[in-house]
Amino acid sequence: MKLIMIKYAELTTKKDNRNYFINTLVKNIESALFEFDPIIEKDYFRMFVKVDESVLDECVLRLTKVFGIHEVTIASFIEDKSIDSICSKAKNLICSGVSFKVETNRSDKTYQINSMDVSRTVGGYLLKNVSNLKVDVHSPEVHLNIEIRKEGVYLYKNGLKGSGGYPTGTLGKAVLMLSGGIDSVVAGYLTMKRGVKLDFLYFESLPHTSLEARKKVVELASVLKKYGNDGKLYVVPFTKIQESIYRDLDNQYMITIMRRMMYRIAEKFAKKNKSLAIVNGESIGQVASQTLTSIRVVNDVTNYPIIRPLASFDKLEIMDIARKIGSYDISILPYEDCCTIFVPTHPVINPNIEHVYSEEKKFDFSLIDEAIDNIFSVDLEKDEKDDYL
Ligand code: ATP
Ligand code: MG
Q1: Could you list which residues have their CB under 5 Å from ion ligand 2?
Q2: CA 268 vs CA 180, 261, 319: distances in Å
């Protein structure tokens, strides 16, 4: 078995909830590595995950995607705590030609050599026995850590950066308004990073939008699944509402009013679904419907918490995250969402709320209840072939 050491992310700041956070992290790790039968040991400061050597790399990769982890490091363990045994293990871990620093931590205070002396002795041994090494105490290429504990000695080098944040699920559940575009999936990722579990809500206007567009959304939801979210995707049949707005209401206000309808549905759905907030990918000024005036007019239909993680992000910053999390290539596939298909030539930038109220008088609100009654869920597991369609 190989040993992976995990350092917790922001858990240190959550003293009261610490055990809850750690236990949730254990569950999330178990589910991320479920087919590899990991053995997990946790303590207050870190966690050790033991897995078979043949799956070590895959496990490390998956762990870097689990929220609540600051660093993932492959570690070695020796029961023999003698300085000779530490030196020879250290030698196995260092390649020639690098700059290095040894740092020792001795939680076993009965150990007869103090930390400084262990570091010095091991460092000296390495310089003598590995070619072309150089000590660099300020910015070494290899940081060799030695931890002397009751049960034995752990040795490890620089780890891989984890995803940070809080373990998914520790901060409740929200609904993500998920479109096939670039932004909403990134907004979902950032919200999950803060410990929030997500269900997904997609507004669909068949036949004006295609089933390929839905497939894109399924794939985007599956990207978030890789980061430890096991939420469901729900589809709102939005065609009648959109057609009615398009046919009967002021064309310039089409998007504003359509978004108010989306928010109304999202709020009712969130309440039914026991979600504490609604998340979306809105970003200030990105399009006409996301000016502050528009956001205010759209937000007017609900007092539910609306989380907009991308509110102050530039599009280029959003695109960078999308590439990093692996959603970008899916998002740029060419199928259109319901928002883009009915775009008016001159959408209003500063909508007037009184005008919205008077336009909405022409709208048949029973369509909202009808849409909610007809929401259905889509199986994310069946995204291989088109059999979910
Ligand atoms: P994205 O913003 O994800 O690139 P988009 O550009 O199509 O997609 P916008 O018009 O910018 O979407 O809408 C802002 C936000 O509204 C989206 O980020 C998403 O959260 C939500 N939204 C838009 N269209 C839909 C839809 N068809 N289903 C669910 N949510 C949607
Ligand atoms: Mg957008």
Answers
A1: 183
A2: 22, 11, 31
